[in-house]
């Protein structure tokens, strides 16, 4: 039994088992798309440059974790696409796969001679997924980044206070665009079962932000009023705030019904408020905020975060401690529910990272392959494409390709 058969036998229920993917992805959007397909069981081959491989392997600072986060469950194949032999080899591989993902700059794949038209001539069943900054139109030629489209699409405006637009605290647009790419790929694969033909799938950063902004656009259309940034939105609930506890930490409390309020007062021992008719309704509590809310802050400040969250859970009201991303490593729910996968970094260290937030029949999608070294596992696809050992050795000697066997699963 070869390595691919062994892997498939160990994971027979994965929904995309048997689907082969070439990923020409860099940074986040393309790799995020490939990650989701890989977690779902597809054989995803990350195409990299011989030698150093993907630039995200070596990023420091904010981008230090990009490669580790978005490249598990993949294999790697290094090909020099700027040389004729590398391009010809890549097109031979295109004939063997179901999906190609690319998020290179506009026009790059066409200049390399591996654009959608050429690839689909070689393999009419190919689903070609192009992830870009913008759909075809006046902006199509522009380079885009997550932060760029958050600014121009209104997300940064809605996130920060007036005059201080602020990007979201994660690469939400890159990841969302990659996810829409997956939706398009799955739809094209399903349609292919009937037509026998692949499709060109397009998903983009700017249009993804516009989709997120749809709720605010609709609200403006209905109300006739331009929505204010989220930090300045109007008050719908009397208690929907951050509170600072005795130990200097913060907890969010949201009381969004009068039932919540009654349970809150009973559990926290606020009998005086439970019996006060001025506070019996949400509107009454809003009208009483000038005297009621400062006292609420004082009362909750007497509690530690642990005491406050324990009481809030007992009361059955919405609450959340304000946490940092690294707090998720030790989060009891993430750990006991099996939501984290121990993943190797390029330096060999281990870090727990979230699995896909998705289950089928109660089963999560586990880590099967650690993020690959440059060329790791790519030999499998070369063999499947009928490329013999002698040719592989010659290509490696010429610096056209780098491939090696997979490490442990």
Automatic annotation (TrEMBL):
Pfam families: CoA_transf_3. Keywords: Transferase. The keyword Protein transport does not apply. InterPro entries: CoA-transferase_III_domain, CoA-Trfase_fam_III, CoA-Trfase_III_dom3_sf, CoA-Trfase_III_dom_1_sf. GO terms for molecular function: CoA-transferase activity. This is L-carnitine dehydratase/bile acid-inducible protein F. It comes from Desulfobulbus propionicus (strain ATCC 33891 / DSM 2032 / VKM B-1956 / 1pr3).
């Amino acid at each position: 039994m070869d390595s691919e058969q062994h892997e498939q036998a160990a994971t027979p229920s994965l929904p995309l088992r048997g689907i082969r993917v070439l990923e020409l992805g860099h940074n986040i959007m393309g790799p995020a798309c490939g990650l989701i397909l890989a977690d779902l069981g597809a054989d995803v081959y990350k195409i990299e440059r011989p030698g150093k491989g993907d630039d995200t392997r070596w990023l420091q600072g904010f981008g230090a974790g990009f490669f580790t986060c978005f490249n598990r469950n993949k294999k790697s194949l290094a090909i020099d696409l700027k040389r004729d032999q590398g391009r010809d080899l890549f097109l031979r591989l295109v004939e063997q796969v179901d999906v190609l993902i690319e998020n290179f700059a506009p026009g790059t794949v066409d200049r390399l001679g591996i654009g959608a038209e050429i690839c689909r001539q070689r393999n009419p069943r190919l689903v070609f997924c192009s992830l870009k900054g913008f759909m075809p139109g006046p902006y199509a030629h522009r380079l885009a980044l997550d932060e760029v489209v958050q600014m121009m699409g209104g997300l940064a405006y809605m996130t920060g206070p007036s005059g201080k637009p602020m990007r979201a605290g994660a690469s939400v647009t890159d990841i969302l665009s990659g996810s829409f790419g997956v939706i398009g790929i799955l739809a094209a694969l399903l349609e292919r079962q009937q037509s026998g033909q692949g499709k060109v799938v397009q998903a983009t950063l700017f249009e993804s932000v516009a989709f997120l902004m749809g709720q605010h656009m609709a609200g403006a259309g209905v109300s006739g009023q331009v929505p204010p940034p989220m930090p300045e939105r109007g008050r719908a609930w009397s208690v929907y705030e951050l509170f600072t506890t005795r130990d200097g930490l913060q907890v969010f409390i949201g009381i969004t019904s009068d039932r919540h309020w009654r349970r809150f007062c009973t559990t926290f021992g606020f009998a005086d408020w439970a019996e006060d008719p001025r506070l019996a309704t949400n509107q009454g509590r809003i009208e009483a905020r000038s005297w009621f809310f400062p006292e609420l802050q004082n009362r909750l400040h007497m509690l530690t975060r642990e005491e406050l969250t324990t009481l809030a859970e007992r009361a059955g009201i919405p609450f959340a401690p304000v946490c940092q991303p690294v707090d998720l490593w030790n989060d009891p729910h993430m750990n006991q529910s099996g939501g984290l996968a121990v993943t190797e970094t390029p330096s060999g260290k281990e870090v727990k990272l979230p699995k896909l937030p998705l289950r089928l029949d109660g089963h999560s999608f586990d880590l099967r392959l650690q993020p690959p070294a440059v060329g790791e596992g790519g030999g499998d696809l070369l063999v499947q494409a009928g490329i013999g050992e002698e040719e592989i050795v010659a290509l490696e000697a010429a610096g056209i390709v780098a491939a090696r066997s997979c490490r442990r699963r």
